[in-house]
Amino acid sequence: MSLARYACDPAQSRGRRHAEAPAPTRTHFQRDRDRIVHSTAFRRLVYKTQVFLNHEGDLFRTRLTHSLEVAQLARSIARALALNEDLVEAIALAHDLGHTPFGHAGQDALDDCMKQRGGFEHNLQSLRVVDELEERYPAFNGLNLTFETREGILKHCSRANAQRIEDEQPNGVGRRFLDRTQPSLEAQLCNLADEIAYNAHDIDDGVRSGLITIEQLQEVDLFETFRADTARDFPQLQGRRLLYESIRRMLSAQVYDVIDSTRAAIEARAPANAAEARLAGPLVMFSEGMRNQSAVLKRFLLHNLYRHPQVMAMTGQAKQVVRELFAAYMEDPRRMPADFTARVDSPRAVADYIAGMTDRFAAREHERMTGRKLLS
Question: Is the pLDDT of residue 118 over 60?
């Protein structure tokens, strides 16, 4: 399929940090995707969780299944908009590589531990993974991905960290956070596909867990519209089939809304190429109505699922595990593998080591070092 004029063309890529000969059978972005899939950090995602911790059930989403769902949604939308599907897939598969164990609880705890040392941002950590922490090639650290993929991975970044990146890599991936410009349309698309995916699967996981019910969800217009339509079309449906079909219809409506709204925005701003698209403001978007409905759904999930007493209790234990691991490794860095122990910047080395852990490994290490089992 031919690319739109405003899509990222691999032949026009800004290249890699370390020069490499092009692959004979793959574009730059296909090569990025393949490197991500074969990375150690990608494999670890199967044991890193979203809302529910790894030991709470085998069927809840993990960072890996979430990343695959984001990639599927983003590719579908990219094809309709004639954007670069390979770049979209690479960004989607890599966007959570820097996430800590125990979901956002682990991230918040690690950020607290690093407050006086530059903090911890999981998007910046994802970039560290692909730029420095993966060890697969003889000539360089990291995966040596293209600028465009790295730009998409760095979804958010504080101004202080953006300035540090800019000082180290002038006119690089940190520049747009200082200029207040946008990333590529492919990166913008992955950001929105991420939101669509986690809202949908958190409904599914929340109902599966018993922490929220379909009856509660009927208060949310975005869900109830499609539940009512499903119940009208299939009066006999109940339980999980009713839930699945309602979510499927909701996802489809959101995808079509993004396609239609983005086409209208692109037509109005008429960028001549990918570079102009970055300067045109956000172009990949929901309609105003869908954006408002999505915000209501997110507030519902925040109050009824993410802040549910059972989730909060487990969140508190997970944070304690991360904080105590950090303190233990800072006290005696020799408890970490030699390649982390040898680094001069020990607080960042400790953060890198903990961020790379899976849920089960972090829980096991904590129990081994403290003799206490917090997560069971």
Answer: yes
| Tokens 């990166």 sit on residue | 187
Q: Which domains does the chain have, with CATH numbers?
A: 27-200+251-370 (1.10.3210.10)
In the predicted structure, residue 55 carries a pLDDT above the cut 80: no
The reported pLDDT for the residue numbered 54 is 46
Enter the DSSP assignment of 98.
Answer: T
Q: Cα dihedral angle (339, 341, 346, 349), rounded to 10 degrees? A: 40
pLDDT above 60 (res 352): yes
Largest CA distance in the chain: 65
The total of other beta-carbon atoms located within 10 Å of residue 263's CB is: 13
Cite the DSSP H helix spans in 154-238.
159-168, 175-179, 185-209, 214-217, 221-233
Q: Using one digit for the tens of pLDDT, what is the confidence trace for 61-102?
A: 889 999 999 999 999 999 999 999 999 999 999 999 999 999
